[in-house]
Amino acid sequence: MPVTWTFTVLPTASFIPTPPSRNPPISGLASWQSNMVNPLPYPGSGGTPYRSAEWWCTNNQQVYPWWSIDNADFTGHFATNYGWGSSFFRAFNYDGGRVYQQIADYDYPGMPGYQDPAARAHWNRCAQVVMDPYKNNFIATQGYIMNEANIHPFGMEINYRRTGDATNVQAVKYMANNAIWGTYYSGSVFASSARLTAYLLDAALAVEMTPQPRNKAFLPRTVDIILGYLDQLRNLNFNDPNQQMSALPFFFGAAMEALIDYYELDVAEGNIPDRRIPLDIKKTLDWLAASAYIPSRHTLVYNFYDLPRDPNLVGGGLFETTELNNLVAPAYAWYWSLTGDAASLTTGDDLFDHVFDSASFYNPSGYLDDGWTWSVKEFNQVYKWSFDFVNWRTVPNAVSTVLPASNPCENQSSPCQAAWPDQTPPIQFTWKAAAAPNAKPTINNVTAPTLTSTTATFTFSSYKPATAQVFYGTGAPAACVMQPYPNTGLRSCLTRDYGHASTAVAGVYDTHTTDEYDPIGSPNIYNYTVTITGLSPRTKYHWRPLLTDASGNTAAYVDQTFTTP
User: Fold this and answer.
1) DSSP 8-state assignment for residue 347
2) How confident is the model over 163-213, as pLDDT tens digits?
3) Confidence band (pLDDT; 50, 70, 90) for 67?
4) 49: which strand partners?
5) 229 vs 227: CA distance, rounded Å
6) Are the beta carbons of 404 and 211 closer than 8 angstroms?
7) Per-residue buried b or exposed e for 436-447, using 16+ beta carbons within 10 Å of the residue's own CB
8) Whole-angstrom distance, CA of residue 563 vs CA of residue 535
9) β partners of residue 362
10) How confident is the model at residue 295 (pLDDT cuts 50, 70, 90)?
C-alpha cells in the first residue's frame, strides 16, 4: 500500500525588532546583586553565611554538603572526574568559570571591592581555579571525558578572548569535535535531548568565537533540530498516553539560550539572523507560561508530569525549585528587549525576582531543603545566564555576555597577550595513555605505591611542572585547616602531622614516545616518581603527596594509607 504524507510549507519567517522605549526597574535586582557576593548570614540560618560567590570560592572550613573550590583543592579532593555522581555538584557544572568572570565584570555601588582592581583579580583567580583542571582534563584526555553533564565551553571562550591563552582554544575544539559527538548534529530526534543538543551548539559557537571558521554543516542543521524540539514541546498533549517527554523545563531554557546566542552572533557578525528563532521562542515562552508556570509559587514545574497539577494540594518541594528559574527567565527578558512584549516582561520578572525563594542552609536544627545554597552547582544555575537577563532588562541594545564584544582583551593588545598570573594548584592524578587503537588517554585518581618491606615507590602526574615530596608517618594526621589564599599553610600542616618527608623530585615532561597507540599523546602531562626508604616491615603508614609549582602554589592529594609487607 502506498503511503501518502501531507506537508505544509510555511512562508519565510519575518521578524522586525521593535524594542521598548523604556526599561522599567527590576524589583529583585538588589537581592540578585547582594546574594552574588554577600558575606553576611542568611536570615534564619543560625549564623551560617550566605552561600555566595565568596563562600563557594574561598570557604576554608565547612565541607558539608559540598566543598568550596579552595577547600576541595586544599583537602585533596581534586576535580579530576567530570561525569555524573558527586562531581556533578562541583564548580565546573553550569560553567563556574563563566560565572566568576562575569562576577569580575559586574561592579555596582555597595558591592564589596567596588571599583577596586584587586577585587576583580580575586574573582578572576576563582574563575581560573575552576577552569584550569577542567580545561586541562579535556586536553589531557583529548576530549575523552565528554558527556552531557560537562559541556560548558563559554568560560574558556571568554577567557581566551580576554587573555589570549590558546590552551582554551585547544580544550573548546576537543569539546566541539570529540568523536563521541562530532559526527552528530544532535543527541537524538527526541526533545529529551534538548539540553544535550543545546550544549553541542554552545560548543560549536564557542569555537567560532575563538575565532575559528563557522561549521556551516553543523550549525544550521542543529538549529533546525532544536527548533523541532521546541515544536515537540508546544504540541505535548498531557492527555495522550502515546506522547511521552523525558525532559524538564530548564532543558528548553538551555535550548533557547543556545538559539539566542546563535541569533545574536549572526547579528554581531553582520549576517542575516534566523528569523524563525524569536518567533519560535515567543511561542515556547507562551506555552511554558500557560502549561508549566505556577504563579502562586513563582516558578515552573520541575517535571511536566508532576502531579497533582495544583500546588495547593501538595506540600514539600515539588513546585519549589526556584533555583532553576534563571535558566529560563533570561529568554523572557531577551524577547521583551526585542519587542516590548508585556507578557514576557511580567513572567520573566516574576521568575527572576523569586529565584532565591528556595534558599536552604545548615543551622543548629539541621540541614534544610536543597535549594540554591545547596552546592556551587546550584549557585551557578542562578548566575550563569542571569547576567544577560539583567543586561537585556536594563541596557538598550545589550548583547550577550559570551559574545566577543562583551569580552575585549584585558590589556587591549592585538593579538591578545594578557595572561593572568598562575594561581592554580598543581593537582595530582594518574594519567594513562591510550590502551587500544582509536582509544584516548584517561585521568584517574592517584594510585597506591609499589612496596617492599622497607621501601615505597609512588607514581603520579600533574598538568604542569612542579616539585614533589611525599609526606608520611605512622600516626593518623589531624585535619588541616586552610588559611586564606595564598598562604594556605598546607606545607606546615603536613610537616606537623606526618613527621617525615621524602626528598624533593622534579616532574618530568611526558614525551609519549613509548605510547603504542597514541605517539602524539597529550601536551600537558608531567610525571613524578618518588621513593622512600627505611620503612619498617608490616607497618601501616599514612601519606600525602605535596606538589609545589614555580609560583609557589601547592596541592596535596587526600590522606591515604599503605602497609608494608
Assistant:
1) H
2) 999 999 999 999 998 766 666 778 888 899 999 999 999 999 999 999 999
3) confident
4) 41
5) 5
6) yes
7) eeeebbbbeebe
8) 10
9) 367
10) very high
- Integer CA distances (angstroms), 164 to 129, 135, 211, 257, 551, in order: 17, 15, 11, 26, 20
Instruction: Tell me the angle at which helices 249-268 and 276-291 cross, rounded to the nearest 10 degrees.
Output: 160
Helix (H) or strand (E) holding 124: helix 117-140
Cell of 416: 591578545
Q: Cα 49 to chain center, whole Å?
A: 23
Going by the DSSP 8-state scheme, the letter that residue 50 receives in this structure is P
Q: What is the DSSP string of 72-116?
A: HHHHT------SSSGGGGSTTTTTHHHHHHHHHH---TTSTTTT-
Query: Which strands sit side by side in the sheet containing 508-509, from one edge to the other?
Result: 450-451, 456-462, 526-532, 508-509
**Which CA distances in Å does 48 have to 68, 112, 144, 470?**
15, 19, 39, 36
Domains and CATH numbers, the chain: 60-403 (1.50.10), 430-563 (2.60.40.10)
| Grid coordinates of 278 | 524569536
The pLDDT value given to residue 93: 93
Give the per-residue pLDDT at 521. Answer: 79
The per-residue pLDDT for range 394-433, each reduced to its tens digit, is 999 999 999 999 999 999 999 999 999 999 999 999 999 8
Alpha-carbon gap, residue 142 to 415, rounded angstroms: 26
